[in-house]
Structure formats: C-alpha cells, structure tokens
Amino acid sequence: QLRFINLHKQKDGVLTAQVVSSSISQLGLFGTGLQRSYHSLSLPSITLCSHSAIFDISILCNYVYLQKLELPHNKIKDLSCVSHMPYLVILDASHNEISNFFEFQPPKNLKEVNFSHNRMTKMKDLSAYLSLNTLNLDHNNFREISGLEQCCKLTHLSLAHNKISRISGLDSLPVTHLCLRGNQLEMIEGLENLKSLQVLDLSLNRISSLSGLQNLHLLGSIDLEKNLISEIQECKHIHNLLLLRDLNLLRNPVQVIVSSVNKYDPPLDVVAARDHMTHLVYQLMQPQVLYDSTLPSPDSPYPMLVLTGPQGCGKRELAHRLCQEFSEYFAHGTCHTTRAAYFGEENGLDYHFVSEEDFQNMIPMGKFIQTLQYGGHSYGLTRDAIEEVAREGLACCVHMELEGVFSLKNSYFEPRYILLIPIQVEKYTDHLKKRGLYSQAQIDAAVSRIELYANTNKQRPGFFDNIIPCDDREEAYQMLRQAVKGYLLLEEQEEGEDNIRASPDNTSTGADVFVCSDHH
Ligand SMILES: Nc1ncnc2c1ncn2[C@@H]1O[C@H](COP(=O)(O)OP(=O)(O)OP(=O)(O)O)[C@@H](O)[C@H]1O
C-alpha cells in the first residue's frame, strides 16, 4: 500500500493531473471491494516546501474517491471541486484565501473541517453536514455563529480570533470543546444548553462576569485569560462546577487589584497567612520534638486563652490579674519584644526584652509561633513561651493585637479569644494620654483600631469567643473572670460537692478542665 507521496505544485499555481498522480497516497479499496483508489492527498505546508503556492485546484474534480484532502498554506479561493468528492471525511483548507463558507455539495461523511486562516465572513446553514464533528474556523472574519443547529455530531468547535460579539446559535449541540478565544464577547451567554461542554476557551475577550457558566456541570477547564473580570466574587457562578480543574483568570483586572491590595494594603488574613507560613516553615526546618503542649493526648488541643484589643485597653493588666487569681489553671505566656521596657516592667514577666537583631535572628531559628510589627517595634510569641507554661500543666494566657489573633487562628492551637473593646472612646483616649507613654500619633493609631476590632466582630460572627467592654477596668475584670469560670465549668463545681479544686482524687490539670468545656 502506497502512503504519502508528496504533491508538487507547478510554478504558475495550477495543479495538474501529473502532479497529483505523483502526490496522492493511501491506496485503498472502495465500492464492492474489488476496486482500488488513492484516498489521501496531502500538500506539505509552505514551511516544508519551497514551491510556490497553488490557487487553482479544479483538477481535483476528477478525484472522486478522496477521503482526506489537505491543502494548507496555499492561495486557494475556490473549493468547489469538493462537490465531486462524496467520500471525503477530512478536509484541511487552512491558510488559504477562501471567502465562501462550505461552497460545495456536502460529502455525506465529512467529519473534520479546518478552514482556519481564511477570509470567511458569514456562516451558512450546515444542516446537510450531519457527520461533522470537528470544525475549525479560527482566524476568519465571522461576526456571528449560525447555521450549526442541525450539526448533531459536532463536538469540537473553534472560532478563535474572529469578530464575534455575542454567543448564539449553539443551542443544545453536543459540543465538548468550544474555543472563542480572541473575539469581542462581553458576556457569557447562549451556553446554558451545552450540557456536554468540558473545555471552554473564552480568553482574550471583554467578559466581565462569569455568570452564564453555572449550569455547565461537566466543565473541567475554563480559560478566561485577559478579560475584564474585576470582581473575585464572580467565582460564585462556578462554585457548583464540581469537575472544574483548570480556571485561568490571568491578566484580568482582578489580578491587578488583588495583587496591588495585597502588596500595598494587605488584608489581615493575608498578613496572617504570610506570618504563619514563615514561622511554620522555619519551625519545620528544626529538629522535631514532642512538645509538652501536645501532651497528654495528641487529639485534644492545648488550652490557651488570648486577650485581644487595642493597645492600652488593659488586656495585659487583666491577663496578669487573671493568671494570679486562677494560678492553678493559667500562667502568663511571655512574648518577646524589641521595644524598650517601660518604667516598672520586668524582663521575663511582662516581656522578654530583646534587641531587633536578636529578634530577627530568632525567626529563622523557628522560635516564633507568630510575630507582629506594631508601632515600629517587633513583637512575637515563641513556642518556648507556651511550652514553659504547658510544662507546668497549665493553660497559657497571652495578650496580643488583632493581627496576632489572625495568625494564631492559622496554627493548630485552638485558643479561646476574648475581645476587650473600649466603648467610650473619649475615656479610652484620656486613659492613653494619662499613661504618658504614647505620642499623639500613637494614640490616634490605637483609637482608630477600635473600629477594626468592632468590624471584625461584626463581619465574622464567632471570631471572638467573648466580647467585654473595657471602659471600666474592674467591671471588665469581673466579666472576664465570669467568662473564664464558665470555660472552666467552675460555677457548677463550686456549688456541687465534688469541687474540682477540693477533691483529693482529682488528677486533672487546669489545662484538662479548660479543654473539657463545650468550645472544644
Ligand atoms: N506577640 C504579639 N503579637 C501581637 N500583638 C502583640 C504581641 N505581643 C504584644 N502585642 C500587642 O502589641 C501592642 C503593643 O504592645 P505594648 O506592650 O507596647 O503596648 P502597651 O502600650 O503596653 O499596651 P497594652 O497595655 O495593650 O499592652 C499591645 O496591644 C500588645 O498586646
């Protein structure tokens, strides 16, 4: 059997019988099976052939048994010879100068057609092309999709780089692969009945919404690169597409917004995620040991209490007082800071006061669980600070700004978070002034953050386990100890006969009791 004989072209661009006879391939049987003919005619692409392109192929009218005709990269304008090829299955006439759309009698079994890179402007009725399953019309001048309604076998349709501004005329075709890259689409419409669609390329358009994709449940890949999608919330339209594996939203304005916001004004979640990742990675690079905080059982989280609120709201003082009163349950987890000690502050008790250099050196040593830059200084909670408390069988009580809470929420620790929030802003401002420690700018910054705390509480129900107004320190402490007693289930135990603290048989640690409350 002969296979692939090159087709040579004459210099003047007219294909002759002589040339065809030396270029045709794939000798096969046809009809009764007793006759033989060549089935395939393939022109090598211009890049492989130094001959000039052909434009007149009328000689091919005589080659009625062709099943595969490949004529890419020529100057063909007229394909009417195909009318004489009733057995044609594959037609590649890409990179030519054809302006008429399917201007030939339909071969009954024509399955694959490639008319890409031609000069076509208008689609026409293809209801006679019932076997068509692959149609490539890229790089033409189509403005509208039409005439495909009856193509009940069409699975692959490509109309990339045309001038289509609306998706229509696809109705309920069995299309699995659809490419409309590089058109003028502004919205995704007319796809709702393409229930078989698996791969959709809408890149290089002007689409601003993902609406219109929500019912395409077989979609596995969507390319929307370089469109005008600016809202990441648009992804809600594809939330139910369970088979979706690839979604390309590169070069959409949403990228720019997200990345510039993340760079210049990053949301707390983003800062916290970065902080957490940094410390986790550094920690994983250290020799791994079994921590006291993971005992006695790896399943139950180590109990921690975090007091949060704006600077100077009293959380540090309240934390110390709480640890004193409930000393059999809690001990203070002492953070590190690079700020200088205020008058009366004790190293190791209020903070571990360290130099910026020491602090920075501790980061790659995997020492920190979380860190924060606040008011020009570094603050950080170390693993050791927690372990020191855990070793005593106690729950760790710490205080920190909101960023620290966000970061800690990424860790496997599951503290209870109590928000101490000033309600009377003036009183809070006066208190900060009276402390005599802060500049006006620092006071303004602290006051402005009250809103941040309040909004976080509003927008994230359950983010804080308790919210306590802290305008009056004594009242705040009473509320705090009530809340803590609730966590420790102390109310009932004090009333009952078996007071947990009085029972000689009780072997629970403070930490255990804290864990047993409903929160965990
Ligand atoms: N590891 C940490 N992570 C996040 N925030 C922290 C951390 N350690 C301390 N902070 C918080 O940083 C802020 C500044 O701490 P600093 O001790 O300088 O404040 P302060 O003026 O003494 O106020 P406060 O009375 O609220 O502690 C405080 O709100 C403090 O709770």
From TrEMBL:
Top-level taxon: Eukaryota
Question: Which UniProt key words apply to this protein?
Answer: Leucine-rich repeat, Repeat, Transferase
Domain (Guanylate kinase-like) spans 302-485
A GO term from the CC aspect: cytosol
Single GO MF annotation: GMP kinase activity
Q: Which residue ranges does UniProt annotate as crossing the membrane?
A: none
- List the Gene3D superfamilies hit by this protein, alphabetically: P-loop containing nucleotide triphosphate hydrolases (3.40.50.300), Ribonuclease Inhibitor (3.80.10.10)
InterPro entries per UniProt: GK/Ca_channel_bsu, Guanylate_kin-like_dom, Leu-rich_rpt, Leu-rich_rpt_4, LRR_dom_sf, P-loop_NTPase
Q: Does the keyword Repeat apply?
A: yes
For this protein, the record's Pfam families field holds: Guanylate_kin, LRR_4
Specify whether Repeat is a keyword of the entry.
Answer: yes
This protein is called what? Guanylate kinase-like domain-containing protein
Organism encoding this protein: Amphiprion ocellaris
